[in-house]
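Aim 2 progress update. The chain analyzed this quarter is reproduced below.
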Amino acid sequence: MNQKSLPISLREKQRYLAFQIISKKEFDLGSVVNSIWWTILQLYGEYGTSKFFLWVPSNLYDQQNKKGIMRCGHMHVEDVRAALASIRQINDEPVIIKTLGVTGTIRSAKRKFLGFVDLEDFSK
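Predicted structure tokens:
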């Protein structure tokens, strides 16, 4: 039996948060994601965290520049921002996680905050 997905009009709207890690050390994506999940679980519990629809795409994290993009539901942007701001350590190293901005699409987040350039911009 084939399971149908929800129509676009009924799906939760998504937002993309661009963030930057301020620290002396570089961190791999696994360490960053673990600390984000751990902090959000501590603040909001499993039930609250399940409503956030969190996702950190592995191809949108720049380890050298310490910048990345994560996705969450549009109703929980402020909760996720508060959780990111409350992270003080990753792997016992002091850090500050700064939210650079919030967008509605991955494309605009990459262009505005990570410095990616679309080839379509040059074809016009």
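The beta strands are 14-22, 61-62, 67-73, 89-90, 93-94, 96-103. The chain has a mean pLDDT of 90. These observations will guide the mutagenesis experiments scheduled for the next reporting period.
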